[in-house]
């Protein structure tokens, strides 16, 4: 085995250490009342995210509360990963192609076992329901998807590998390429330089793919020029407005909360494609506030362009202060306002 391959294998082993510090899997739940979604991240030895909110929702349909204790795998996954890291380092030290192939086979078997184990947990979690739950639908189960999307009542559930899993996949793929090239090198010594350059090219390709992603960003609304994506009217009032930014970077602009609510209700965009939802600050025209922290003041005296009559503020304190200046007004969050607007 060439020195370059052995160095790359050693680097791969060190990269695997990062899996200890990042989530391995993510589950997302999206519904009209939660346009930004609820998320849960599964690590090697813990669970993070909006688990308490998810548990609160699941309680009504009889699903178990998600806790660390329900995953016995957390007690030994860190050691399994340590074994794999040491195995890769052993391959790098010995330089044996057969040992690298044995590692790849073991990785595939381990990956399949992990998916089967996750499926079995999901099956039990979605089928073993509390018979005394407030909401019961005979014959209906709530097993989350293994990978991909699944509709569960009014929620869109998504289950995908997270950073840790992609690191494992990337390192394993790199090791597979190295093994393949070294196998060919042993068969055709005369092509050693060509095979080494291919291995370097593949590694560079992985670096480009994983480091070259761009984060979608909002756009300033050009008042008097931009049109509302829902009602097609020109956006003119700088105190009102909203934007939806997709994961691919496309920006939808709106002149009123009424329009963005109608846009979401009619599913003109899949909720799972939404990267960010923003509202124009009433007291800071042209500036945005995220749907996660926005608080609205609702009053007919506000006279917004399309009759939503809701002004966005950055937090509860600012909204209550403005509400105190308008007789008969009230404050509310986006989930409540959305349900009012789409009735």
Automatic annotation (TrEMBL):
It comes from the Bacteria. It holds the Pfam family NosL. InterPro entries: N2O_reductase_NosL. Keywords: Membrane, Transmembrane, Transmembrane helix. The keyword NAD does not apply. The chain crosses the membrane at residues 7-31, 74-93, 100-121, 163-183, 195-213. The keyword Membrane applies. This is Copper chaperone NosL. It comes from Flavihumibacter petaseus NBRC 106054. The lineage of its organism: Bacteria, Pseudomonadati, Bacteroidota, Chitinophagia, Chitinophagales.
